[in-house]
Amino acid sequence: MKISNILLSVALTISVVDSKVLNSNNIKRQVGNGSPEHIDYKHFSYNFNCLEDNNGSCNIVKESLNDSIDVLESTFEFYNTIVFDVFVDNWEKYEMKAVGGIVIDTQYIALKTGINEPPYIYSQALAKQLNLNKPVEFKENDFNIIVTNKIQEKDILYRLITHEMVHGLGFIDVYKMGHVSDGDSLDRIGMVNYNFNTNSNLTDVKILPRPLVQYDLENMKNCRDFNRGTVIGFSPMTVFEKNIVDINSKIKVLGGLENLYQEFSCLNDPNISDKDNIKEKCYEKVSLNSKKLMTEIPLKYYMKQDSIGFLTNNDSVVPLYTFNSKYISGSSVCHTNSDYYGYKYEEEEDFEHYKEELKSNLKRNSTKTETEINNFVESTEVKETYWEGKLSKYINENFLMNWVYLDKFSTEYLIKTLGKYNRHGLIGNGIVDILKTIGLTEKGEMKSNQIYYIADDIKYPEQNTLKQIFKKKELKCISGSSNININISTTIIVSILLILLSYF
């Protein structure tokens, strides 16, 4: 199967179609054709759930997954086991259209670097590798991974899964764009993308904290119950977001908003009984300085290209991706920068022109048949020869965490042309430095003595989107019979990347 134009985004709403009923409270023992295969591999322990195989796709995913673990283990020191589940299926059965691979249900814990320091959110997988001030009762899984059974190219799956696991380790943001006067409920913060060409009221767009939502899955009786999540508070920013800076001045972009999760919360205010327009009422409680920052950041940074980066511990800035005049939740901010549109123009214009000229020359000067010429012009050899020395104009060594997937090139070629100076091959130096800055230890280095303190006042609810998906299937919330959808954008999970696939 050939894949074209794979983009990373999270603008997805799921309506689950009817098929075999699953008990959402007991997913692991009632999936596919039997019990999941439990695999312990190095510092990773996972249940492999092959819900539906497709010409051996499950084995290919499993091999690719272990390759991803190998590259992570050769890049970082792991001190405690990372636990997760993998589900392979045709996700179109759930009306999750064009899903390639997603890290889902990443669990989080709030930590401080000092008793009097503000809390930041760490992925549970990352927190397990740190020196915590006291024992923690971790949630059962650190995250889940879902993978399509339609991709059978091991090299593509290898990069895709590694990309997702890096997100699961903490390469993630939770503060999102949102209107405060749109009448939406709090739990819909982060579900809307913004574009200057289609939104007329962008001056009202603010940066908002992620709501913490709980769902009573066991007592859900019908599809409408999915609209009845309880907002119990708001999330602090992630340790990743803490280090986002102005790409030129190195000034922290979110500096001054460390306590926004407290300022914005008006859930327990006895003077606010009317739940209509509650976002406006929460916003009114915020300090004037915070309001100023909440308004400035979207237009000055999050919807302005080449504006932000990640400040690493070695004082270098790794550029992060933002779109010009628009914001796409799950693609903006939490990926490394690239000139994707410049690359696409070269691919669609100059490279196509180059191939046509090559074809004409071969027809005049070669004894090859037309079929042989066409096959040669479309070959990997021609493509790689053309892009040698050109690709680096648009994409850098941190290509693994770009918001677009370079499906036309092999991992070997990308490392040879873009990552030849990378310390760890596939995982670019900037990505390694980002993950080191948020707490991981690079392979061969000594672990930091930093103590992290549990923020006991922040109870992060268990993320359970996958259970919701199966619960909706169990309740037969079929598209067309109900207008109620399960949203898997940032109000339910923080780290979720949709791979948009188009086939030719």
Estimate percent helicity.
25-40%
Task: Please give the order of strands in the largest beta sheet.
Answer: 3-4-6-11-7
Distance between the termini: 9 Å
Overall pLDDT metric: 84
Label the structural class: alpha+beta
Domains (count)? 2
How are the secondary structure elements laid out?
Elements: E1 3-9, E2 13-14, E3 37-41, E4 44-50, H1 57-73, E5 76-77, E6 82-89, E7 101-104, E8 108-112, E9 120-123, H2 124-127, E10 131-132, E11 143-148, H3 154-168, E12 176-179, E13 194-195, E14 205-208, E15 211-214, E16 230-234, H4 239-242, E17 244-246, H5 260-263, H6 278-284, H7 288-302, E18 308-311, E19 317-319, E20 326-327, H8 340-365, H9 370-377, H10 380-387, E21 404-405, H11 411-417, H12 429-437, E22 441-442, E23 451-454, H13 465-474, E24 486-487, E25 498-503
Parallel strand pairs: 4-6, 6-11, 10-23
Antiparallel strand pairs: 1-21, 1-25, 2-24, 3-4, 5-22, 7-11, 8-9, 8-23, 12-14, 13-20, 15-16, 17-18, 18-19
